[in-house]
Amino acid sequence: MAIGVGRRQFISALGGAAVWPLLARAQQPALPVVGFVSGNAADAVTRELAAFRKGLNETGIIEAQNATVEYHWLEGHFDRAPAVMTDLVRRQVAVIVAPGNVPALAAKAATTSIPIVFGVDQDPVKLGFVDSLARPGGNATGMNFFAVEVVAKRLRLLHDLAPKAVRVAVLLNPTNASITAFTLREVQEVAPAMALQIQILKASTPGEIDAAFAAIAREHLDALFVAPDGFFYNSAVQFAALAARGNIPATYDTRRFVEAGGLMSYGTNFADMYHQVGTYTGQILKGAKPADLPVVQSTKFDFVLNLKAAKALGLEVPSGVLSIADEVIE
Asked: Computed from CA positions of residues 148, 179, 303, 219, in that sequence, does the dihedral angle turn out positive or negative?
């Protein structure tokens, strides 16, 4: 096709052939955008984020090369999730990534057309995300990890580590209604079989966490069971410091608490969940449909034990407990 005189003169004035790369770049389509929305703070999930990117890379998707990932960190302010999702839908991003119940539910409420890759700890069929695990059938798929179903195991491990602990505080976040209900039901069901007396405490702010530990001291409670929750996850350092100061054996659902100085954790390997979410995100960017990607269920669970914390608490770790730990921090 002939170049018009005006355009030819324009190119010549700018240096002729030197301008062609600029024109070519200007004509390239924009990279697809992935909207990644997490309830956590960025520095709370560095290991998991690396796993997400690894999953992307394994499908041939490289950030800034053939896709843009736009990260949104709610940092425990879950009320921001609907507005973030509304904006992503308005801008018609290619995929919404939602690791966590609150972001996932907000994404589901915001769109029925943009692909969603979720990580949820409850049955995604009951939550209305998919028609079935094997054939999701809609615009969403991802991973179903288990946070509440391991309550009995976590209580048993805590009892094995601190056999003299009878009165156990269970800390819940009342703003996380679904997790609170599930955890409460599970704890009340399994505690009597272990001869444990349960006292429910609630917290949804840093000050209320402080108040909960003050109540533990005031009521002379023996141990603490912390429910799964994104806000608690972001407060791992606070939990470890308060538990150490109050000489309270505590159990958590993820390794982040133990790395911060907590006694023990047992639960889903979240890096594995993020990796799966990354893999599915890449596959969708390459043309796969969420309706055809079966929901994956957790198969990796980690028991992480901090021997330094156990020693500081005056606990003798039974050899049987030590032998089943997936990771021991010394």
From this structure: negative
For the chain, the first-to-last Cα distance in angstroms comes to: 72
What distances in angstroms separate CA 177 from CA 5, 95, 163, 171, one per listed residue?
68, 27, 31, 13
- pLDDT for 2 equals 44
Fold of 33-147+270-301: Rossmann fold (3.40.50)
Q: Cα dist. 49→56, 277, 284 in Å?
A: 11, 10, 18
Q: Where are the domains of the chain?
A: 33-147+270-301, 151-267+302-329
Judged against a pLDDT cut of 70, whether residue 173 lies above it is answered with yes
- For residue 156, the Cα-to-chain-centroid distance in whole angstroms is 24
Query: What is the distance of C-alpha 280 from the center of its chain?
Result: 16
pTM of the shown model: 0.79
Dist CA 42 CA 74 (whole Å):
9
Return d(Cα 311, Cα 330) in angstroms, integer: 10
Answer for the pair 240, 257: CB distance below 8 angstroms, yes or no: yes
Predicted confidence (pLDDT) per residue in 108-142, tens digit: 999 999 999 999 988 899 989 999 999 999 999 99
Kindly report, residue by residue over 284-294, the tens digit of the pLDDT.
Answer: 999 999 999 99
Say which residue the tokens 């879950």 belong to: 78
Per CATH, the homologous superfamily of domain 151-267+302-329 is Response regulator (3.40.50.2300)
For the cut 70, the answer to whether the pLDDT of residue 193 exceeds it is yes
Residue at token pair 């819940």: 172
Quote the CA–CA distance of 181 and 218 in Å, as a whole number.
26
> Does residue 215 contact residue 209 with C-beta atoms inside 8 Å?
no
Q: How far is CA 37 from CA 70, 93, 106, 286, in A?
A: 8, 12, 10, 21
